[in-house]
Write a structure and sequence with these properties.
The structure is a single chain. This protein has five helices and 19 strands. The chain has 274 residues and is of the alpha+beta class. Strand 14 and strand 15 form a beta hairpin. The protein is globular.
């Protein structure tokens, strides 16, 4: 069955053409329907076009980035983490083909898939089926799953340790179930934080930001950012990777804290006078 994919956000649906007029993910205020209108495709069509290709690059010891070119949907980066005998795909992308499957199997396959939030659910079930892997999504975002699967594990609470030193943390913000990944063994045991865009690295790479909606510029409340900063302060990391291949390579925890302070001061009107 050809399941259709929204061209704007890249999320795959259970339904075939004609049963879904508008993307539910894009039709709410954190995303947007394209100015050209709602457009759909399928994975089969993308493969048949022959223009898409996934590139897998090593970023650090045990860490690879996965990107589709030309860019599709939101254009996020997925990350592949190798830790001892456990391989994790963090966030997901829409495009997957036989070459991608072969390359990742050569690296050791995928033991689990974990998602930061609904905008990156993409073709997660296709990936899970290709590698016989479970998908971990926080139960607070259950309503945004557009293609149900028995492979999806809806976890609850504030944290879930997938493997020793690989921990999911629900910190909310961008979405109620917004999740970050703490990889304690990453960066030569200094720790790495994978954030999707629950926390996003900005143009000045020593700072981050927090938003309810990035494309529509809707900020988060100061109290929410303060709560996030308190949670993040407890985690072990010196390096941070966001969803768009932006990296804070050193003192990332300090960058998050100073960014949260600046954000709260801006919202409260104490940062500047203009």
């Amino acid at each position: 069955m050809d399941r259709f994919i929204c061209k704007t956000c890249g999320v795959q649906y259970e339904n075939s053409f004609g049963k879904q007029k508008e993307c539910i993910i894009c039709g709410e205020e954190r995303q947007f329907i394209s100015s050209n209108g709602q457009n759909w495709t399928t994975l089969e069509s993308m493969i048949k076009e022959g223009k898409y290709k996934n590139t897998i690059n090593i970023e650090d010891e045990g860490l690879y980035s996965i990107n589709t070119s030309p860019s599709f949907g939101i254009g996020q980066t997925a990350y592949y983490i190798q830790d001892k005998d456990f391989n994790l795909l963090w966030d997901c992308i829409s495009y997957i083909d036989e070459q991608t499957i072969k390359e990742i199997k050569d690296l050791g396959g995928i033991d689990a898939i974990a998602l930061s939030h609904p905008h990156y659910y993409s073709s997660q079930v296709e990936w899970a089926e290709a590698f016989n892997a479970p998908i971990y999504i926080h139960e607070d975002d259950k309503e945004w799953v557009m293609r149900p699967s028995e492979r999806i594990v809806f976890w609850s609470g504030e944290s879930l340790e997938l493997k020793e030193g690989i921990i999911l943390h629900r910190i909310g913000g961008h979405f109620k179930g917004g999740t970050v990944l703490e990889w304690k063994n990453g960066d030569n045991q200094s720790g790495v934080l994978m954030t999707g865009d629950i926390i996003r690295v900005v143009a000045d790479r020593s700072w981050v930001s927090f938003m309810y909606s990035y494309p529509n510029f809707i900020p988060l409340p100061a109290a929410t950012v303060e709560r996030i900063s308190i949670r993040i302060k407890e985690l072990k990391f010196a390096r941070l990777y966001d969803a768009f291949h932006r990296v804070i390579k050193e003192e990332a925890k300090q960058s998050v804290q100073k960014s949260a302070t600046r954000y709260m001061e801006a919202l409260k009107g104490t940062l500047f006078n203009t």
